Amino acid sequence: MFFSSLQANLKARATEAAANVAKVEEASKAVADRRTALYNRAVTHYHKAKLDRADLARELEAVKVEAAKVPQLESDLRAARDQCAVSEEAGRSAARKLKLAEQELTRLRLLEQNHLTELNSLRTAEKEKVDDLSRRVEKQRLALQEEVTAKSTELTATAKRWTDDFGALDRGLAAPDMFLLLASGQEAALTAVGVARDSRRRETGEGSSEYFSMDDHLASMAARIEPITKLGWELRKAAEELVPMLWPEEAAPQDISGLISAMERAPDRFLDWKESATRAGADMALSFVLSWYNEVDLGQLEFRRASVEDKLPADLKAARLARASTIAEFVDKTLFVADPNPPLSDGYYMDDEEAEDVPEDDPAAGSADAPPA
User: Fold this and answer.
1) Mean pLDDT of 132-149
2) Total domain count for the chain?
3) pTM exceeding the 0.70 threshold for the entire prediction
4) Biased-composition ranges for Acidic residues (predicted)?
5) What is the pLDDT of residue 69?
6) Same domain, 270 and 350
7) Following DSSP, what letter does each residue of 73-136 receive, concatenated?
8) Which residues of 65-94 are buried (b: 16+ CB within 10 A; e: fewer)?
């Protein structure tokens, strides 16, 4: 009985101890879980605190940067205050100037009133002077009108007389010499006058008259001047083309007087060009000879053998002329060849009629029959 109760007591204690152990284990497990949770929370808070610390550090740097700007801002604030003070002073100065301007404006208004008063008085005085001057001008105008009327009457009579004279001149009744001078253009002039009269008749209904009006004279003169102008233009164009050809080394004159002077010297210049052509041809012929026979003595070519033309056969003359024509093609015809030994006297050239009367001298007269060495 005793052992049974003891055994039961021991079992009860063992059961209680097992229950306590289970509670202790549960408590240990709960403590471990709690500790793990607390550790995790501590780690989380640590990382968060670390991030917050980094953010605070960045904010601190930004605050330091902003704090570094504070002296500059204070300097700008002081400058702004100084500027405001200057602006206020300028405003006060402008107010003083405005007050002075208002005073000056008041003075100018008073002065304007005085000037208007003086101007009105001057206008009255000037109006009286103008009225007096107008009366005198009107008197002078009337006198001048009478004078102009008399002069106009005189000029009208003179114009009518001139018109009558011009009409007689155009019809060939008043000036026979002028008629002979302008006879070639008389028909064209009368035709032009007829056309002009027809045109005026269609436009204004003007009737025909036996006298020439000023428009008729202008039409007649235009009809006569047109062919003369055309002829003058053609002559000038021909002169402008001819003068550079005759004097290629000189600048052609641009004025008509210079062209006329050059054309007056053109006949002599043509003779100069003829002589230049003969010199150029002879020079080219001698150049051909010397290119093959450089031992020829040019001093012995002063004369030609006597009667050489009579002794040459016709075929040789023809061949010589053909060869001369071929050699002439090598001559520069635009180059003027001056005489290296010009004549001393001015009467070097003769008129064409005198030149025709003088027989051509044979350069072979008095020369020897021996050929040049």
Assistant:
1) 83
2) 2
3) no
4) 349-363
5) 84
6) yes
7) HHHHHHHHHHHHHHHHHHHHHHHHHHHHHHHHHHHHHHHHHHHHHHHHHHHHHHHHHHHHHHHH
8) eeeeeeeeeeeeeeeeeeeeeeeeeeeeee
